[in-house]
């Protein structure tokens, strides 16, 4: 076993131009009032890695162009389809009108484990909330479902960009599994 060289890795990756035209996932991600520029940069990188269909930034969530986002995103802010919508409820109504299931990534009394995501949940929009307060009650009321990452330690949650990575890749895995079965 040997570590791949940078050139070998590049041979396996899309070019930035290809990333803008390739078929993307049925998974979308909505960031509601996330305050950290670095969390948003990290979210762009994760959305690029999973080839997420769209990243929607809402409320006071920072959005490009911002040097702090670009620094963490490492260029993914230029290859991931994204848009800014000030009103998160407007963005969710738009998703619902397109037949997209709205899934909160939040601790709720009815949340199911993220590992239960399946093809039946697609297309979906994963809603992420504020680092301190989570998803607001108003936004949660517009969600069709909620998923949670079981916590086995003392803390009850993960950093929002870490949690996003776990749930995004599980949703993409469910989509990939669906494609293999058809």
Would you mind describing this structure in some detail?
With 182 residues, the chain is α/β, with parallel strands linked by helices. 36% of the residues lie in helices and 17% in strands. It is built from seven helices and seven strands, in the order ααβαβαβαβββαβα. Helix 3 packs parallel to helix 4 and helix 3 packs parallel to helix 7. The longest helix is centred in the last third of the chain and has 22 residues, at 160-181. The protein starts with 5 loop residues before the first helix and ends with a helix. The mean pLDDT is 95.
Q: Could you give the topology of this structure?
A:
Elements (H helix, E strand, L loop, with lengths): L5 H6 L4 H4 L7 E6 L4 H13 L4 E5 L8 H7 L8 E4 L2 H10 L3 E5 L6 E2 L10 E5 L8 H4 L4 E4 L11 H22 L1
Parallel strand pairs: 1-2, 1-6, 2-3, 4-6, 4-7, 5-7
Helix pairs in contact: 3-4, 3-7
Number of strands: 7
Q: Order of SSEs, N→C?
A: HHEHEHEHEEEHEH
Radius of gyration: 16 Å
Shape call: globular
| DSSP helical segment count | 7
List unreliable stretches of 5+ residues: none
Distance linking N and C termini: 34 Å
Largest sheet: 7 strands, parallel
Strand order of the largest sheet: 3-2-1-6-4-7-5
> Mean of residue pLDDT?
95
* Beta-strand fraction estimate: 15-25%
Structural class of the secondary elements?
Answer: alpha/beta
Oligomer: single chain
List keywords for this structure.
globular; single chain; 17% strand; 7 helices; 182 residues; seven-stranded parallel beta sheet; alpha/beta
Report a brief summary of the structure.
With 182 residues, the chain is α/β, with parallel strands linked by helices. It contains seven helices and seven strands. A seven-stranded parallel β-sheet has the order 3-2-1-6-4-7-5, sandwiched between helices.
């Amino acid at each position: 076993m040997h570590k791949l060289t940078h050139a070998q890795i590049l041979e396996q990756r899309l070019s930035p131009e290809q990333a803008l035209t390739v078929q993307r996932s049925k998974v979308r991600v909505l960031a509601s009032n996330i305050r950290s520029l670095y969390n948003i940069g990290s979210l762009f990188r994760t959305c690029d890695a999973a080839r997420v269909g769209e990243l929607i930034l809402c409320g006071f969530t920072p959005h490009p162009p911002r040097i702090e986002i670009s620094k963490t995103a490492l260029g993914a802010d230029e290859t991931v389809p994204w848009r800014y919508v000030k009103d998160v409820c407007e963005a969710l109504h738009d998703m619902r009108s397109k037949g997209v299931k709205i899934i909160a990534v939040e601790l709720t009394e009815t949340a199911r484990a993220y590992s239960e995501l399946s093809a039946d949940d697609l297309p979906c929009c994963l809603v992420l909330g504020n680092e301190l307060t989570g998803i607001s009650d108003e936004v949660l009321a517009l969600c069709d479902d909620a998923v949670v990452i079981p916590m086995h330690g003392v803390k009850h949650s993960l950093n929002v960009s870490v949690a996003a990575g776990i749930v995004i890749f599980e949703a993409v895995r469910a989509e990939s599994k669906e494609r293999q079965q058809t």
